[in-house]
Design brief:
It is a single chain. This protein is mostly beta strands. The protein folds into four domains: about 70 residues, no CATH class; about 270 residues, Glucose Permease (Domain IIA), CATH 2.70.70.10; about 80 residues, Immunoglobulins (Immunoglobulin-like, Sandwich); about 100 residues, Immunoglobulin-like (Sandwich). About 10% of the residues lie in helices and about 35% in strands. The chain is built from seven helices and 36 strands. It is globular. The protein starts with 16 loop residues before the first helix and ends in a 9-residue tail after the last strand. The relative contact order is 0.12. It binds zinc ion (ZN). The site of zinc ion has 6 residues, from loops.
Length: about 550
């Protein structure tokens, strides 16, 4: 996650700023859209850049609008951010209202006709946050249903690949405004059937870390790791970038795509003041030849070679993972991509599928368990745990086995469950393929006491490093930080029969505290899969539990390396 460090509502081009401050992009649209509050400030800064055509329902503003349009045209060539990209990405996007259809030309020159038939958004009873958005679309005459983002990948249907990165409900009560630049009911993205989602050889996984090695907050998932989910908090920070937790100071961050450094720390390349770039001491922006801006946030250190104007190669070191800036106090990489959207506005280019594909190319995992996103419920309410997004290279997963925090077990890709006590739960999903290979993931369930909704349970962020290539007897570092409590201690159980270890983190009293995480080290004597558990209980007896999956070699042991 990140929070805007500066208010860029008023662009620096002072002579034109009075026109830019008109809410031009919004008047013709729903008041629920709040482009001005966009987290990275882009659409806030440039309301008239592209929104000019969308305004003319308010007649009395016509003159202003005409003027603004003129100024927009006039300004366009001045912005380096808008110079024509050298290359067009494979992905195509289209924004549609319900009952609207469009023909889209795909990257291979073929055409697809897509119509948005229906949008269903499911909200929780605690914060009124969208927890699931499903769209029904007609694609080349064939009807199908897609779930928007939240760890869903593109699907193949009717001779094309399609996904739904964002729907209207997510931008209506977002604390981040319209980060997506979406002015219609839903956005759909299309690729030719059989095509990669992102060009091979031109995109890599930006962390030197195992897939899902720690908590994540992917697109459209309300942020939760730092304790940000509370029933009283009605402005939802639906994450739009991709947050990957990791051990502070121990995970190298690399360039997902080659590109030019536009900002590094507080230094910004001249000519990019009006662009998606928001320089901050812990942030790097790169611009690739697709015209996409890549943000790397919360870096503990930035590599000295990453200077404004420098050309950075694919996979080159950008810095080291940290918890700087507006991290909320949990150590993670915030990675996002901003590009021009069908609305004409700058907006998020959903990157989860790109990370997934890049990781697969680089690591060739045989199996990936997916139990995310997290859940947020009152006591007594039903939760649907869902492992069906798990993936097997063999094409089929033979078993889905769940072990719950209370010790009970169940089987099946999805199941319902309710909780009588508030707390942070970590439900273990084990997937097994036909050859007996296994992988694990954990479903975080945050349960709030319905009779005392202000008494929030603690939350935990555990990490470890290294996560790749661990051998028996290697020293592994474990770091944990608690949120929403300073009471008690964290207790580690490394899952190998060794004694429990007690540590005490600071409870995130000061999010940037250097020793905020409690650190311990452990060695596993034998190869295998270890489910490491950590927990902490507050003064009211509310407990948080979290897990890590540590796979210890030697040799290929069949899980994501
Ligand atoms: Zn983030």
């Amino acid at each position: 996650m990140f929070y805007s460090g500066t208010d860029r509502r008023y662009p620096r081009r002072a002579a034109f700023s009075p026109l830019h401050t008109w809410p031009i992009g919004i008047l013709g649209h729903s008041r629920r859209l709040k482009p001005f509050q966009r987290g990275s400030g882009v659409n806030a800064a440039r309301p008239c850049r592209t929104g000019c055509g969308a305004i003319n329902r308010t007649a009395e503003l016509f003159t202003w609008i005409s003027l603004a349009a003129f100024v927009c045209l006039f300004l366009r060539p001045l912005s380096a951010a808008d110079s024509a990209p050298a290359r067009t990405a494979i992905v195509r996007a289209v924004d549609l209202d319900v009952n609207e259809a469009q023909e889209v030309e795909l990257a291979d020159g073929t055409k697809a006709r897509v119509k948005l038939l229906r949008l269903d958004e499911t909200r929780d009873g605690l914060r009124d946050a969208v927890r699931q958005a499903r769209v029904q679309v007609e694609l080349n005459g064939q009807s199908l249903v897609l779930t928007s983002a939240t760890y869903h990948l593109p699907v193949t249907a009717a001779g094309v690949q399609i996904d739904c990165p964002i729907t209207k409900g997510y931008v209506t009560n977002s604390s981040e405004g319209n980060a997506w630049g979406l002015l219609k009911d839903a956005r759909l993205r299309l690729w030719p059937a059989g095509s990669p989602w992102i060009e091979p050889g031109m995109f890599v996984y930006p962390l030197k870390q195992r897939w899902f090695a720690s908590h994540t907050q992917m697109a459209n998932e309300p942020t939760f790791v730092d304790g940000g989910e509370a029933p009283s908090n009605k402005k939802i920070y639906y994450h739009y970038g991709l947050d990957s937790g990791g051990a502070e100071g121990m995970v190298e961050i690399v360039a997902a795509a080659a590109g030019r450094v536009i900002s590094s720390g507080k230094e910004i390349l001249p000519g990019y003041d009006d662009s998606p770039v928001q320089a901050r001491y812990d942030v790097v922006y790169l611009l690739d030849d697709r015209g996409w801006f890549y943000r790397y946030s919360h870096l503990q250190t930035i590599d000295p070679a990453v200077r404004p104007g420098a050309q950075i190669s694919l996979g080159q070191k950008v810095g080291v993972l940290g918890k700087e800036g507006g991290s909320g106090g949990w150590s993670h990489l915030h990675f996002d991509i901003t590009s021009r959207q069908p609305s004409g506005l700058w907006g998020i280019q959903e990157g989860y599928a790109f990370l997934w594909e890049a990781y697969q190319r680089q690591n060739a995992p045989k199996l990936i368990a997916v139990a995310r996103p997290h859940h947020f419920v009152f006591t007594g309410e039903k939760v649907v745990l869902d492992g069906s997004k798990s993936w097997s290279a063999s094409g089929r997963i033979a078993r889905y086995d769940w072990t719950f925090t209370d010790g009970t077990t169940a089987s099946g890709p999805t199941l319902e469950r309710a909780y009588s006590q508030s707390g942070e739960y970590s439900e273990i999903l084990k997937v097994t393929d036909a050859r007996g290979e296994v992988d694990y993931d954990f479903a975080v369930v945050l349960v709030i006491d319905k009779s005392a909704p202000d008494q929030l349970p603690p939350t935990l962020h555990p990490t470890f490093a290294p996560t790749l290539g661990i051998r028996a007897d290697d020293t592994v570092t474990f770091k944990v930080r608690s949120f929403r409590t300073t009471f008690g201690n964290e207790t580690w159980d490394f899952g190998d029969g060794s004694g429990k270890v007690t540590v005490k983190s600071d409870g995130n009293v000061e999010q940037h505290a250097k020793d905020g995480y409690a650190v311990t080290q452990h060695r596993f004597a034998r190869a295998g899969h270890y489910l490491v558990r950590v927990e902490r209980t507050n003064e009211r007896g509310q407990r948080a539990v979290a897990h890590l999956h540590v796979s210890v070699g030697p040799g290929d042991i069949g899980v994501a390396k």
